[in-house]
Amino acid sequence: MDIQERLLAKATKFKTSYYVIRGSSKGNTVMVTAGVHGDERANILSAKKLMRMLQNDILRINQGTLIIVPIVNQNAYKRRIRGIPDLNRTFPRKPNEAARHPLSAALFRLAAEFQPAWYIDLHEARGFSKVNPKVLGQTLIANPKSGAIPLVKQIVARMNRSIAKKSTHFSVRLRKLPGSGRTAAHRLLHSKAITVETSCNLPVSVRVNYQIKILRNILNEAGLIKDDDLVGSQQSKAATF
């Protein structure tokens, strides 16, 4: 397994680190982004934890390539704000259309270079979707007709079996969000694109472990890792990853 650190948008004030992790043989490419919004904490911690697991050989990429951008929007993260403008509305919406921000342009160029089979965008939201369908906390989101939908449904079912409190269960959402990284990857790169939204009303440690567990499911499905321990039997078990 080979791990390389590189810089995204390195000639600009938006520069940020990303990592390319290659297995020993060819396979699918998975791209994971976090920190698109600077006021969301657990997704950044999750991406950093995944990197530590790889660097410490706790988790190994057997085949294929994993790209991780732990903090996309460094400027927004330093100020702990969502971002002005909202970066997740600035990605290209049509073929040959330019992104509306230098950082989303750089990130999309990176995705276009690697052509990921799976594009995973980690986020957080308030509330619980099982209690209030209008909120996005505890959801996995894919575009309608996406090839990611079967796995999204499978992961939600797996996660919910390990969560005792039904009000904090995950939901599946199928929706377009023009200008988002997910929809750009789905429409323009034909990636199986998923947005992960844990609820910021839960403890940080629980949110991080949910996101890590979801990522492990996706990496396993994509063939990058072999993981036989994907589903816990209790909510407390989910917090031990």
From TrEMBL:
<feature type="domain" description="Succinylglutamate desuccinylase/Aspartoacylase catalytic">
    <location>
        <begin position="27"/>
        <end position="139"/>
    </location>
</feature>
<protein>
    <submittedName>
        <fullName>Deacylase</fullName>
    </submittedName>
</protein>
<keyword id="KW-0862">Zinc</keyword>
<keyword id="KW-0378">Hydrolase</keyword>
<keyword id="KW-0479">Metal-binding</keyword>
<dbReference type="Pfam" id="PF24827">
    <property type="entry name" value="AstE_AspA_cat"/>
</dbReference>
<dbReference type="InterPro" id="IPR053138">
    <property type="entry name" value="N-alpha-Ac-DABA_deacetylase"/>
</dbReference>
<dbReference type="InterPro" id="IPR055438">
    <property type="entry name" value="AstE_AspA_cat"/>
</dbReference>
